[in-house]
Amino acid sequence: TRDDTRLMGAVPGLLMKGGAEGVHAAALADGSAVALKIDDGHARARMPVMVAVLRSLGLEAPEFDAWATSPVLGGGVEVGAVRLRPDVLR
Question: How many angstroms separate the first and last alpha carbons of the chain?
């Protein structure tokens, strides 16, 4: 996706690929890797989860803040947001 491309540009050595049904994988130049599956298959949680995982691996980029939440729209208006609870990856 375009988000993948922008995130790869923000993190040197990051390789990412999204798949069908909420599957996503990422690998770093140091050999560490992660794969995730969003249970409901919807893309809205993909980037917040991936950013949280990358941060848990010690990575940081200014662009991460923009992807840490994903808006939920109702009638074209933002009515909420998807974001991870702070304790999810601990």
Answer: 28
3: confidence class by pLDDT, cuts 50, 70, 90: confident
Burial class of residue 55 (count of CB atoms within 10 Å of its CB; 0-12, 13-18, 19+): middle
Dihedral angle of Cα 23, 8, 67, 52, to the nearest 10 degrees: 70
What is the Cα–Cα distance from 74 to 26, expressed in whole angstroms? 31
CB 6 within 8 A of CB 50: no
Alpha-carbon distance of 85 to 68, in angstroms, equals: 11
pLDDT score recorded for residue 19 = 86
